[in-house]
Amino acid sequence: MEQRATSYHSQGLSRALAILRLLGKAPAPMPLAAISAELDLPKSTVVRLLLVMEEEGFVRRSGEPPVHSIGHAVHEIAEGYRPPSMAEVTNEVLTRLAERVGFTANLGMLEGPSVLHLHVVEPQRALRFATGGTLDFAYCTGLGKLLMSVLPTDEIDAHLPESEPYTSWTPRTVTTRAGILAELERTREAGYGVDDQERNRGVTCMAVLLPTENAPALALSVSAASGELEEAARERVLPILREAAAALVALPDFEAALAPLRTRLALANRMETA
């Protein structure tokens, strides 16, 4: 009996939430008949749920014949909503990736001539190559080169240093625009990005794009001591990296975590054009 009652109340809650979602998306207040038809629910059920939600302030009834819209209580809850950070949303996937391959996992995006490290997770044997929330140069990192490789040619210069030669961090750093463009072409052909000791001596990074449809473009990478991420190891790690990238995009709160990043980019673009 208790299980049946619990199931009944859960069903009622689900139906009430479905009504709220419908009213929230509707361009105008809706009459009872339209709500019932849209959700394929009996009118008697919809009436009972609307009355309860109206008493609690979640639904507002107006007009004659009456129509229904979102009430003040929904707006009060919405004001307290804080979009989750990208680090909060992605931490579990990045942690699994880091422990599975034994390398540092890093999620990043382009910001001007830099890569913004959105979240970094190290394996238990700590290998600190970057810190979440920090910036690094795009032209000499696997994340940066991969993200630039998918840009139109006329947008690439905005993500490169203003003058050549670029700073040489190691003997392997590519320090000219022509050299970087050649690197980007190789990256496009390969389908993933590699920084083979170009930013830090003895450190190799490989990165893949997240399969997102809308901006901003994000990339996921792993970094390790160069001897641990040579060609054979890259072939082993690449499918694991792509699997993790797909898992990130499938996370329920991933789109919500993207919203502040889109706002950040929009503000940066407005400042550049001002």
Automatic annotation (TrEMBL):
InterPro entries: GAF-like_dom_sf (IPR029016), HTH_MetabolicPath_Reg (IPR050707), Tscrpt_reg_IclR_C (IPR014757), Tscrpt_reg_IclR_N (IPR005471), WH-like_DNA-bd_sf (IPR036388), WH_DNA-bd_sf (IPR036390). GO terms for molecular function: DNA binding; DNA-binding transcription factor activity. Gene3D superfamilies: 3.30.450.40, Winged helix-like DNA-binding domain superfamily/Winged helix DNA-binding domain (1.10.10.10). Pfam families: HTH_IclR (PF09339), IclR_C (PF01614). The keyword Secreted does not apply. Keywords: DNA-binding, Transcription, Transcription regulation. The keyword Transcription applies. Residues 10-72 form the HTH iclR-type domain. Residues 73-254 form the IclR-ED domain. Coiled coil: none annotated. GO terms for biological process: negative regulation of DNA-templated transcription. PROSITE patterns: HTH_ICLR, ICLR_ED. PANTHER family: HELIX-TURN-HELIX TRANSCRIPTIONAL REGULATOR, ICLR FAMILY, HTH-TYPE TRANSCRIPTIONAL REPRESSOR ALLR. This is IclR family transcriptional regulator. It comes from Parenemella sanctibonifatiensis. The lineage of its organism: Bacteria, Bacillati, Actinomycetota, Actinomycetes, Propionibacteriales.
